[in-house]
Design a protein that fits this description.
The protein has 493 residues and is of the alpha+beta class. It contains 16 helices and 13 strands. The structure holds adenosine monophosphate and magnesium ion.
Length: 493
Amino acid sequence: MQSQSPSPHSEPLQLQWQAGFAALGSAFYTQLRPTPLPSPYWVGHSESVAQLLGLPEQWQHAPDALTAFSGSTLLAGSEPLASVYSGHQFGVWAGQLGDGRAILLGETADGQEIQLKGAGRTPYSRMGDGRAVLRSSIREFLCSEAMHALGIPTSRALCITGSPAPVYREEAETAAVVTRIAPSFIRFGHFEHFSANGMEAELRQLADYVIDRYYPGCRTETRFGSNPYAALLHEVSERTARLMAQWQAVGFCHGVMNTDNMSILGLTVDYGPFQFLDAFVPGHICNHSDTQGRYAYNRQPNIAYWNLFCLAQALMPLIQDQELALAALEPYKTAFPTAFMHEMRRKLGLTAAREGDAELIDGLLQLLARNAVDYTIFWRRLSHAVGNGLFEPVRDLFADRAAWDAWLLSYSELLALEDKALAAKTMLNTNPKFVLRNHLGEQAIQAAKLGDYSVLATLQRVLESPFEEHPDHEALADFPPDWASSISISCSS
Ligand code: AMP
Ligand code: MG
């Protein structure tokens, strides 16, 4: 006789855990519990992340799901902690920071760390309240899943829970918690912390942990003087270079590239005042608090290098040899442009590096900037045009038609060497129709504030397959409305 399987609604969630970061010991964190939020409710969730975590179907209906992911109860076996790190903020050493509002629930046996962001105060909260508002939580949740669907390395987000608890920013808002996951949330700032405090044993322990878990090849790497820490620096530089190339190619501005927001795994983490470009404005500053434009779109690749330099300095007690450290960093200067050219060629449907392609790409970016062309719409229209031969909709985007015609002529020469159908196919799978523009996020936020989560769910569904046409959702692929430019996104979250 078949045994009756328990109803998925009646059993608490069961995750298998492993020690992971917690095994590093008490110098690296403080154990603590999340602070409960009153009357939690569901705002959104990602089925693909639930699957990644091996959660059962209907997991949201488990008796402890809502309370666990809003921080009132603990998942069975979880030993939560907040980690300590330091960092450079806006180019200035900021000293100790740490998980001021994110609490690590643990690492699953499959190697995913699970954090609750906005789960209450920790010893690292400084002046903060340990909370996150619904607005910024929706932005982080949506962007994590959108970036993943674009093929860009990122932390992921399982769900958002909300609460009527008031949180005070420029005005009173309400609290929310994002459950986010990544193989590791270790940042450059973790290394800076132990280095700056002269804690060499802990610095070494951390580096060994990261190498053994995520970069085992560094142990056998013979370049860089067979120094595994220099090899680590090199690997992180390579990953960061590729990440920057992907950000630049899709038009993503992070907004707060402080060293404490730089992932040691080369993931996009800590979504704050980010923005996808509307018009192509190379000097665009998405963060209202960034008065100097330190983190402007076109400065991101250089800032990443600056941040890698901070990581190199932090690793010096382990690398010891300055020349080795520089040799490990130096390849970034070619890795980034190489990766960027690779991305741009794909966007243009060009399968091979050819004479003249660098000028072609450079010329195009200048043309897009001079004409303030909508970046996403341009690439999508170009992708269709290559497929059907009708370039008029692309031409319409330019005020300077003659300059466009001249550029198209040189592009056509390179395109003539490609299989057009294949090029168009590649381009449609490279140039998304949908990105999380600020005004789209804003619409989802405004509806959610009124208790309607359907706008968020629809936007999420479309962003989960951004290369599909979704003919019922043309409006989500349209130019931004006039009011979009008045949205002010700051560090306040
Ligand atoms: P961020 O700019 O969001 O990456 O945060 C920088 C630092 O400030 C990190 O150490 C955060 O944990 C901390 N932080 C930001 N907001 C809050 C908050 N509301 N409460 C406590 N800590 C916070
Ligand atoms: Mg941060």
